[in-house]
Amino acid sequence: MKPLRASCRVFIAVGWSLVASACTHPPEQPPTETPAATPATAPMEGAQPTDPTSPARSNSSADVPGPPQPASTTDATSEAPPLDPSLLRPLRTTAFATELEQLGLDPDALPAISTLGQMQKLDVMELVAQSLGVECTHCHVSDSDYRAETPRKAVARVMWNDFVVGRRLGNEPLFCDSCHQGSPKILQRTHKRAVKAYMKQQYARLVDAQGQGTVCADCHGKPFQPRILDALTSAASTQAATAR
Ligand code: HEC
Ligand code: HEC
Ligand code: HEC
Q1: Tell me, what's the pLDDT at 78?
Q2: Which ligand lies nearest to the CA atom of residue 190 in the structure?
Q3: 88 CB near ligand 2 (under 6 Å)
Q4: Most exposed: 10, 45, 84, 131, by fewest CB within 10 Å?
Q5: In angstroms, what is the span from residue 68 Cα to ligand 3's centroid?
């Protein structure tokens, strides 16, 4: 028996009716009246050029440039892939208030991370790791060296000292888990406008010890710097390299 031509083998997956019709015609020759071949090509040729209204129109209103929308859902739907429900989650009060108190720490008045006692630091690390849903080695070079500096340690230190210390979520205590909710990555970076709307809506709920609201510049500086972690991590890499 002669081996099947490659194109015919592909058609086997589609179905024997197609195989029968496609293989009896030379592939170069466009199918003229084979009923099985027609449905395979018709939808692609037909839908594309003649229907400008279908998927594009339902999104077009969200694509119109205009003032930033407060709600994140409308502008996000215009971009692909769709919004991931595990990202850009609303901030929530910490689940670790009791645990922090048991370690002798006031969740509303945490000290700078460097001032924690050695045992307190170790205990608090457990809560940090749980907040991000990571192992200790996500930030540390190994489980036998917690002192060595790493880029993620640098980020974590800044988040502790600048994002958590002295800040609350409205009237509620705030900790790493308030934003991270079990994951190191929490932003959907592909959706720039959704991230911006999310920050406006959710990060505005953060208040300082005097009850003053948080503004973009508190974290992003002035003029607005979208990427604030890169500088931290590259400085830490240099530091780690020169320390050796
Ligand atoms: C999200 C990042 C992160 C994770 C995860 C993390 N740590 Fe840390 N860890 C830090 C940072 C930042 C410091 C430095 C604190 C400071 O500046 O004093 C630190 C310091 C430490 C220290 C003190 C080191 C020293 O300088 O003496 C120990 C011990 C430690 N971590 C243990 C752990 C253990 C155990 C785990 C897992 C349960 C863990 N860490 C998970 C960020 C992390
Ligand atoms: C106000 C919200 C907020 C709080 C509170 C917060 N973080 Fe973050 N953190 C972020 C955002 C936003 C990012 C960037 C996430 C992304 O890229 O998706 C981030 C990123 C990080 C990263 C780098 C991501 C990675 O891949 O590992 C680390 C480490 C981290 N945070 C540690 C902490 C620790 C530790 C705490 C508590 C001391 C904390 N964060 C508290 C908002 C927060
Ligand atoms: C509590 C700190 C905090 C506040 C307040 C805050 N942001 Fe952010 N924002 C972050 C962090 C952390 C990241 C991740 C930055 C990085 O990757 O370097 C981020 C990322 C972003 C990004 C995505 C940047 C990128 O290129 O991926 C945008 C856009 C943004 N923020 C807008 C805003 C706006 C607008 C406001 C004010 C309404 C605001 N943020 C307030 C912490 C904050």
Answers
A1: 52
A2: 3
A3: no
A4: 45
A5: 15
Which of 152, 163, 203, 222 for a ligand 3 pocket mutation test, highest count of atoms within 8 Å of Cβ?
Answer: 203
Please give the DSSP secondary-structure letter assigned to residue 31: P
Helix, strand, or coil here: 37?
helix
Residue boundaries of the structural domains of the chain: 1-41, 97-242
Q: Which of 126, 163, 201 to mutate to test the pocket of ligand 2 (most atoms within 8 A of CB)?
A: 163
83, 84, 108: which is closest to 178 by C-alpha? 108
- Rounded Cα distance, 64 and 119, in Å: 55
Ligand 2 center–CA 199 separation, angstroms:
14
The pLDDT of residue 17 is above 90: no
**Burial grade of 120 (CB within 10 A; 0-12, 13-18, 19 or more):** middle
**pLDDT of the residue at 60:** 38
pLDDT tens track for 82-129: 889 999 999 999 999 999 999 999 999 999 999 999 999 999 999 999
